[in-house]
Design goal:
Strand order of the largest sheet: 12-11-1-5-3-13
CATH superfamily of the largest domain: nicotinate phosphoribosyltransferase
Shape: elongated
Mean pLDDT: 92
Distance between the termini: 13 Å
Number of domains: 2
Radius of gyration: 25 Å
Largest sheet: 6 strands, antiparallel
CATH architecture of the largest domain: Alpha-Beta Barrel
Strand content: 15-25%
Structural class: alpha/beta
């Protein structure tokens, strides 16, 4: 299936087609549909069919990056009854939205599409959460590359959709091919701790074997295996010289690197990947002429931690981020707000106008 995602100049994503998204066949048998929507659909078909309703979707936070709209539209076009008779008005993936702003409106007979409400809520919530989280990280990273390591933080089924949302927000460096599937990207990376462990803890042997296996690639070495980042980085740089592209610090928050053994750490928290360790590593590498070796950091990095690192001009070249990206922070709600062209909604809700909504044609090819 041809990938059709393209970034527009204004930072949006082009409207995707029905052919772009591959849905589980079990969607058609209502396997993923909330049971009360199935019951409601049956009641409506039996006793109150044929009414035209407006289903409106919104969320409750400001400054959110919207994502999942095109996937939701494709879901409706694929599984709704008589989708050609529906009217769909929508914003674009990549739009910045505010609290209570409608992002999607679907108008048609309830029994034709109402059963998809909860799935649409879930798609919009997950994709917008990932896109928003990625955007928050990129805003504080000062233009430095950020690598998504979110493949290991959740069920593998989430990788494709999360990877698309990550791309919408501005990251194209990912761990797996699945994360890059919708935009044609490929997984990147070099070595895990497992390779060093199999080499009996010998970082030099692990790096040599890596380079022998992939001679066209310079080595980015995971350097915290022995919890002695500065010493091991220097040892490896002296051995590999210009074959060493970068070292990655992934120290657990539960540990204090051996660099701090015997040193006064009363003025800061020395646990995990701390600023002081990165400064010490950069200084040591530069002192021996290894200024070309980049420093990659990972393990517990949030937007707040990255902002603190950047505030203090910590010499990080690349940030690796995982769980921060896939924390669900945006929740969407679908409401019926119009019935046969007249206002009809629960107390506190209404059909809210949004001039930014665009009418979506059917089908999209």
């Amino acid at each position: 299936m041809e990938i059709e995602v393209k970034l527009k100049e204004q930072g949006k994503i082009s409207r995707l087609t029905n052919r772009t998204f591959q849905f589980d066949d079990k969607v058609a048998s209502n396997f993923y549909t909330a049971n009360y929507f199935l019951k409601t659909n049956e009641i409506v078909k039996r006793y109150v069919p044929g009414h035209t309703v407006t289903l409106q979707f919104f969320q409750r936070k400001d400054d959110v990056m919207l994502c999942g709209v095109d996937e939701a539209i494709a879901l409706v076009h694929t599984f709704a009854k008589h989708p050609e008779q529906l009217q769909i008005w929508a914003l674009h993936d990549g739009d910045i939205i505010q609290a209570n702003e409608p992002v999607l409106k679907i108008i048609g007979r309830y029994e034709d599409f109402g059963f998809l409400e909860s799935m649409i809520d879930g798609i919009l919530a997950r994709r917008s959460s990932v896109a928003t989280n990625v955007r928050e990280v990129l805003k504080v990273a000062n233009g430095k590359p950020v690598f998504s390591m979110a493949d290991r933080q959740d069920d593998y089924h989430t990788q494709v959709g999360d990877g698309y949302a990550t791309y919408v927000a501005g990251i194209n460096c990912v761990s797996t091919d699945a994360q890059g599937a919708w935009w044609g990207g490929k997984g990147m990376g070099t070595m895990p701790h497992a390779l060093i462990q199999v080499c009996d803890g010998d970082i030099i042997k692990a790096s040599d074997f890596y380079h022998l296996t992939y001679p066209d690639q310079k080595v980015t070495a995971l350097i915290d295996y022995n919890n002695d980042v500065v010493a091991d980085s220097l040892k490896l740089a002296r051995h590999l010289k210009e074959t060493l592209a970068a070292v990655r610090i992934d120290t657990s928050k539960a540990l204090i690197d051996h660099y701090f053994d015997g040193k006064d750490t009363s003025g800061f928290d020395p646990h995990g990947v701390c600023k002081e360790l990165v400064f010490a590593l950069r200084e040591a590498l530069d002192k021996e002429g290894f200024h070309y070796v980049k420093i990659v950091v990972s393990s517990g990095f949030t937007a707040e931690k990255i902002a603190d690192f950047e505030k203090h001009h910590t010499p990080v070249d690349i940030y690796g981020v995982g769980s921060t990206f896939i924390t669900v922070c945006v929740g969407f709600t679908g409401d019926l707000v119009m019935l046969d062209g007249k206002p009809q909604a629960k107390e506190g809700r209404a059909d809210y106008p949004n001039p930014r909504l665009e009418k979506v044609s059917y089908p999209i090819y």
